[in-house]
Amino acid sequence: MARSPAAARPAPARSTRLLLATRKGLWTLTSDLARNGWRLAGPQFLGHIVHHAVADPRDRRTLLAAARTGHLGPTVFRSRDNGRTWKEAVRPPAFAQGSGRIVDHTFWLAPGHADEPDVFYAGTSPQGLFRSGDAGATWEGVEGFNAHPQRKAWCGGDQDGTPDGAKLHSILIDPRDPRHLYIGMSGGGVFESVDGGGDWRPLNRGVRADFLPDPAPEYGHDPHCVRFAGGNPDRLYQQNHCGIYRLDRPGDTWQEIGATMPKSVGSVGFPLAVDPRDPESLWVLPMDGTSVWPRTSPGGRPAVYRSRDGGKSWKRQDQGLPRSQGWWTVKRQAMTTDGRDPTGIYFGTTSGEVWGSRDEGRSFRCLARHLPHIYAVEVAAG
Amino acid sequence: MTARSSHEAATVVRVRVPSPLRSYTGAAEVGIAVPVLAPELPPTVGGVLASIDGAYPGLRFRIVDEQGDVRRHIKLFVGNALTRDLATPIPAGEVLMIVAALSGG
Q: Is A73 in contact with B63 (Cβ distance < 8 A)?
């Protein structure tokens, strides 16, 4: 593969806008230039379950939101004016007729390659991959995955998923090659395509799956969140059901980097965020994955853990966060960074709070509270 | 009621719409024109839902999945009769009622 491009330059000073996808609608949270004052706006799509909302960094005006309600089927809403007006997709992600499969909800949205304006990818529950070439108006199945003869072996049946349903997530597009894709699946593992989604291969060597009879299978793993390292698409970080991992390409064996986390905290969690300006820097937000998997902050003392050396060591960051009785869960799409200097880091909780740091995690403050269960936090153009 | 356009005959079926779908229709009840294939063939539930999607794009997929099955939390009544079969005929004068079942939290 080509050499890694230089780490991204810091975004110029402007406000930071967060898209807050929740179980009851979509809100936005917009900062002043100093990221000191924040203004909450919304809701849009009140009563819809919004699993994910993303902004298109290519045109800085297109937003997509994946929505459904408890009663109605899934759809995608799209805005071409930064969220002022929205239209529903003409043809939302749906499996092929006759396949017997049904999209329960669209779970993950990803803008495509910079050279492919208006291309977006979507991952669904149960595991399906879809592509739009018209900024989300119509969606087609990526049949190289959806109809792959091994797909069912990789993923299991559509009813075999996690409590919220099996999911395809973490759709990564190599910034140097639009045909080079990675996906993560819970369950299934991490897979790679080098031909634009025509064919796929498992990429899970070195990752534990100690919930399976064979603890080192080729596939069937449970990655929770997979990200490119900031500015280095030859490195991937992964928060998994069974720890935290790093993969340096062209190698194909993941290295466990969560073993150096404090034993009392462990290395289970859902989200993982990277510093867009530093490939060695990442954050995780551990949760209690013991016994019945309470999925809360360990001991009720929430903290972010940061590594600045690619996962060799970790530092606890909890200044400003509750010292006790903070029983949070932060979902896999609900922690992100803003690319400013210093990097801002933000996360949303299932209890409807948004926390943010404008100094790379050294201190946090609560930016919003009393919102519904937060599914996703993403940065949009300010 | 049968209406005739310049191209084909159509009958209008009244459809009662639950509140979660009124963002599409803007009304609690709409009249949907359904093509009449033959005088002896009444419109079907599936035919009405196909026509309703023409009038209000996207509505059908919210209540019928991609395999052609009525979604789990949706109920359809033709008159007072519950049906999940899209081939169910709708006799003249009957109303198709869409119900979005309530679910928790």
A: yes
Output DSSP code: residue A264: T
Query: Tokens in use for A159?
Result: 């009813």
CA distance A47 to chain B (A): 9
- Say yes or no for a CB contact (<8 Å) between A89 and B58: yes
Q: Are A361 and A317 in contact (CB under 8 A)?
A: yes
Nearest to B65 among A75, A89, A102 (CB): A102
Whole-structure pTM value: 0.91
How close A372 comes to chain B (CA, Å)? 11
Q: Which of B22, B67, B69, B74 to mutate to test the interface with A (most CBs of A within 10 A)?
A: B67
Nearest to A73 among B68, B71, B101 (CB): B71
- Assess B75–A contact: CB distance below 8 Å, yes or no: no
What would the two tokens of residue A218 be? 């080729």
Amino acid at A94: A
State the CB neighbour count (10 A cutoff) for residue B54.
11
Please provide residue A118's backbone torsions phi and psi, each rounded to the nearest 5 degrees: 75, 0
In degrees, to the nearest 5, what angle opens at C-alpha A212 toward C-alphas A208 and A216? 35
Distance CA A331, CA B90 (A): 46
**Pick from A29, A53, A25: nearest CA to A40:** A29
User: Tokens 């909890």 identify what position?
Assistant: A318
Q: Which residues on chain A are in Cβ contact (under 8 Å) with B65?
A: 73, 94, 102-103
Report the sign of the C-alpha dihedral through residues A132, A250, A7, A311, in that order.
Answer: positive
The arithmetic mean of pLDDT across residues A113-137, rounded, is 97
Q: Which domains does chain B have, with CATH numbers?
A: 2-100 (3.10.20.30)
* Residue B9 burial (10 A CB sphere; 0-12, 13-18, 19+): middle
pLDDT of B16-39, one tens digit each? 999 989 999 999 999 999 998 888
Residue B18: list chain A partners with CB under 8 A: 71
Quick check: helix, strand or coil at residue B22? helix
Q: Name the stretches of chain B with pLDDT < 50.
A: 1-6
B71/A15 Cα distance (integer angstroms) = 42
A249-258 residue pLDDT tens: 999 999 999 9
Q: In this structure, what are the phi and psi dihedrals at residue A141, rounded to the nearest 5 degrees?
A: -65, 140
**Cα–Cα distance, A376 to A357 (Å, whole number):** 17
Q: Report the DSSP beta bridge partners of residue A19.
A: A28, A378
Which residues, 6+ apart, have CB-to-CB distance to A83 below 8 Å?
Answer: A28, A44, A63, A380
**Contact (Cβ atoms closer than 8 angstroms) between residue A31 and residue A16:** yes
